[in-house]
Amino acid sequence: MTAPGVDGAVREQRPVAERRLHPVTPLRRAWAPVAVLIGWAVHDPDQAQRQLTRLTTTTLLIALAVLVPAAALYGFLTWWFTHFAVTDTELRIRTGLVFRRTAHIRLERIQAIDVTQPLLARVAGVSKLKLDVIGTDKKDELAFLGAEEARALRAELLARAAGFAPETAHEVGEAPSHQLLRVPPAVLAVSLVLTGATWGTLAAAVVVPAILWLVTESPWTVLATAVPLFGAAGASSVGRFVTEYDWTVGESPDGLRLDHGLLDRAHETVPPGRVQTVRIVEPLLWRRRGWVRVELDVAGSSNSVLLPVAPREVAESVIARVLPGVTVPTRASLARPPRRAGRCMPLWWRGYGLAVTDAVFAARIGLFRRSLALVPHAKVQSVRLTQGPWQRVWGVADVHVDTGANKTVTARLRDAGEAAELLRGQAERSRTGRKGARPDRWMA
Amino acid sequence: METGSPGNTGTAGDEQAGAEHAGAEPGWTGLPPGLLRMRRLLLVVWLGLLTIGLAVLLNLFAGPAWAAFALLPLALMAWGWVMLGRNWRSWRYAERADDLLISRGVLWREETVVPYGRMQLVEVTSGPVERHFGLASVQLHTAAAATDATIPGLDPAEAERLRDRLTELGEARSAGL
Q: SS in 3 state form for A98-153?
């Protein structure tokens, strides 16, 4: 911050410039009435047919003459009454025709910024911009902005959030980023083929309707179950391929950049120190190839994937960039629960493991599909110890670590004494772990 | 650290704490007996009404022998009476230098540690029944929704003191996300 007198004068002179969204925005609501009609027709085809035959050309024309201008007017008015402005400390979004709503989003609280381009928006050359702050919802995204404008706005917001002086923030421009990793499409495709869930849903989509056909012989029941099942199978294979296509992880002074998507492009920026949890997931069939999937949790963000598929060493080096000073504990360093834990959880207890290093609390679960969750000590919000009656008999207890992204990481079935020690120690570590953390304004 | 609070009336809780953590964990505070009184009274009232209603109905429609089944809620009441006592005794909390400890549960035990710096909000609530019995609960919120840190059945003055103290400590050590 500069001298308060000068700064104040400048601020008063320079009224906050309010801006409108891109003029194609009204069109995005134009298809809503059409979708309602189609939905109704699909839901009740007989009724729809009857109503359609009763329609004459005149009534149809009258309906169109009323509906189309009404929808256009609504779209235009919502666009006209939506403004946004970037001030020194916040992003303000003012919307609402009848019910006014103003959202003030504080820039230093930004957890991530997403710029997304759905397929049609790519054609039109516009994109959506969303600030992830705890508590924001769908209404708080800026849809749509011109593609260039969105990039410029993201750069400006990041510069202001990083702590650059407000006067220069819009001149800082986009921080240079260098690519850490790009997932080749072939690897992604193979990894999805090797995923059990894909085959499971596909098998269910074939078997369940077949059985239903044998039992009921009613084509409608079969269709009603087959369509959603195939939809789920498609979403878990083709859908994932499409969203995770061309997954690129980059690093910049503004933090992590994730770009991905075949049809809908998404560009996310996670500023430094915002990652709450990192999970390394290793499905059974990927083990021979040494591949892992890395997931991350950022408070208020909907995205949870850091790397859809990557060799373990590469993934570990990326994690070292995301969580500075963290090394992923090796399998040997993960302590298993005591043998008697098998009385509480037969067989699966072997999959549990725990390691506490100077920087992270790491807990593993899963026997076939191994998942190792890492929580930096600085991100721990509270620590809980729970012990049920059967666990008490065998002298074991669970330790839960709660993080700000509403995710809880659990070290299961630890020895009761060890768990009590862990509870005390973890509270201490989570308190002191904060001291070395970078400030919220990462460039300040 | 001044842990011996004025509202420290939970003798049973202290006894248990003394037995389990002799000197290791200073400053456990139990809950005042008001909460136990309220819960037991509610138990007796509701199950008492049920017993009477059941006895009358069975007597009218099924005969006096069947009315003996009305003793079932009575047995439930006796069991609940004991259970409520055990549960109440298990609740205790400790204000340590840097975090708040809450321990509870008999069969399903749970112990929660919340560092003061992580508290986002401290809430004191008191429903109509609780108010009638002169009780209030203190609830702590952190940025994690899973954090379940509630201390029920406190004396309102003690609840307010705790709230003020926690807020003060939270401000001094605030760390955010």
A: CCCEEEEEEHHHCCEEEEEECHHHHHHCEEEEEEECCCCCHHHCEEEEEHHHHHHH
Task: For residue A424, give every residue at least 6 positions away whose Cβ sits within 8 Å of its Cβ, in sequence order, or none.
Answer: B113
Contact B109 A386 (CB under 8 A): yes
Six-digit token string for B79: 């069991």
Instruction: Read off the pLDDT of residues A104-149 as tens digits, 9 standing for 90 and up.
Output: 888 888 889 999 998 888 888 999 998 888 777 777 888 889 999 9
Indicate the residue type of A217. E
Higher-confidence residue: A98 or A181?
A181
pTM: 0.82
**Cβ(A108)–Cβ(A89) below 8 Å:** yes
Domains of chain A, residue spans: 15-178, 191-244, 273-432
- How far apart (Å, rounded) are the C-alpha atoms in residues B107 and A390? 9
CATH code at A273-432: 2.30.29.30
Residue of chain B whose Cα is closest to the Cα of A381: B118
Q: Which residue, chain included where needed, has tokens 């290793």?
A: A282
B149, A382 in Cβ contact below 8 A?
yes
Give dist(CA A397, CA A62) in Å, integer: 71
ipTM for the assembly: 0.79
Query: Which of B101, B103, B177 to probe by mutation at the A interface, max A CB count within 10 Å?
Result: B177
